[in-house]
Amino acid sequence: MRLAGWTAVALAAFAAGCGGDDGPVSAAEYGEVLFNDARLSESTFNRFSCATCHATTPTPPAGRLDSGYTLYDSAFRGSWWGGYETRLLDAVNFCYVNFMRGVAPLTEDSPQSRALYEYLVSISPSRDAKPLPFTVVKDATEVARGSRARGQEVYRAACQGCHGEPHTGAGRLTELASVLPEVTADYGELFPGVPPSVVVIEKVRHGQFFGVGGNMPLYSAEALSDADLGALLTFLEL
Amino acid sequence: MRRRRAWVPALVLALAACSDGSKVDGVEPPEDLEYAHPEPWVEGTFIPPPGPGGRILITNSLDDTLSLIELDTVGTPGFKELARVPVGLNPVELEGPHHTAVSPAGDFFYVGISNYVPGGGSGPHGTHGTGSEDGYCLKLDARTHRLVGSVRVDPNPGDVIASRDGLTLYQTHFDTLKIAELARQGITDERRMDARLAIIDAATMSRKAMVDVCPAPHAVRLSRDERTAYVACWSDEVAIVDLTANPPGVQRVKVSANVGTAVNPRHAPYALTLSPTTGEAWVSSTASRQVQVLNPITRAMDPARTVQGLRGPPMFGAFTSDGRTLYMPYQLVDALAVIDPATGLVLREVDLASAGCVNAHQVELTPDERYGLVVCEGDHQGPGTLHAVDLAEGAVVGTVRVGLFPDSVSILGGRP
Q1: CATH code of domain A148-235
Q2: What is the least distance, in Å, from the CA of B71 to any CA of chain A?
């Protein structure tokens, strides 16, 4: 019975036009695939992969401003999330559950989890990497506005991947990501007396946390400076 | 089996070649994965588990951490913070760990999470940590400091203690916001201001009972036979909870002949210390700066022995095991009063302020009763402190700076 089943799978694979290749797959290679694939999460609503928010090069590529740090040299930092996660898997699972709508945290020993681990280790050559700071901006308050040109760069580097083109949302990663800045049109009604810019600042600084809701990531003070946030608001005409 | 294995390499070759050049097809695990690390996910912060010497745990309520200090360093030059570990469910928001209970076997500890952190964050969606959210009781493994269970409780968890067998937890809710909210609505019925005592099964972390006790109950202690719980109530009362009844029965006793209300207490009981010999409850009243004595048999206060004349609000005290001395930290001048329970008189005081104590909050005695460990909140902006007081000398012999707003000290293991 079983033999017949396997044969069928193998035949189907060949039939699909796949030729021969070299040997077994290393867990790190498979982990890299998972890192870049939103289907790591079983949620049908999820469009985010780890790579949506994390670079993997020593310094993030130009034109990218991510909410999360690059995961190059992340495995041996010793603690993560500003010291509030003291186990690597917990640091990953916080993202997996909160941002990627993972139904249950990754277990220690599933092939997916082990492969992701081996991938993170494979991009972490330094055994004595230091923990990185993570400063949550607790109070959402106005910031000084900056240059429109810089604001456009910031939008492209930080927001556009998920939200698509301003005003149209063209090319956005998910329909769930609102069209910016048009979404703020209702803010006067939803938050009477509060400038819409402050609602956007809160969203960027708190993400889904502090009772805001949704599944957008938050930007710490390290991830996005107030100066860049101010420039972004100028660009969004807020 | 053997047959199936024989097929695998062929299959892997076949699958590996799929999806344009990549050896992995989609997110399904390839059959023949080669692992380089037999033990995944080992990376993290390593903190040695508590040894036979025991360990001191301090909750830092404004920075979501616990300070750990080895108990056997008390009174030695090695008295210092071993580690500061995060506690809570979320690395982003401040969650306000309040008191800690330890299991008698030293294998677990329990932390009340209040979600009430003044200055915890604000925005158009509201101020975070207004105290209207339900809290949690968390269960952590003492060896790894990792969360192993949790249960949702009411808003503003106050004190938490464990039964002697470690199977049951008792957690109060110091819900003064509920009092304020009802008062604002013009409601004076104090029964509507009652907050509950959560009785929790520690093994399963599930609620066994939620008992209305009184307005803003804080300290809770069990009688020696564990049939009765005594609770300090902000409403100028002590609640006596009969744990043998189902549901548990509650009697409230006013702490003095001269009392106020839940909204306007004259005494404002906050903490409570039980005599190990007489079973009397010594109630620390913050507004009147008195410690009032409840007789467990007559269930009446004994005003003749009320401790008077403290120069600040008394907090969480500790008795020696012979019941002959009560050590009581108090605020404002920040001192440790040494009280004779037979008379209620303050015999002497140990100055804590000169050692850097601001807002003394609790004293716990080391198992050999040579030292009192006094935790001081600090000014809530900078670090708080833990002081080791040599009880025979009447002097501070060691000070450790801990995290922000520490407000409880407990000892894990190390019992003789």
Answers
A1: 1.10.760
A2: 23
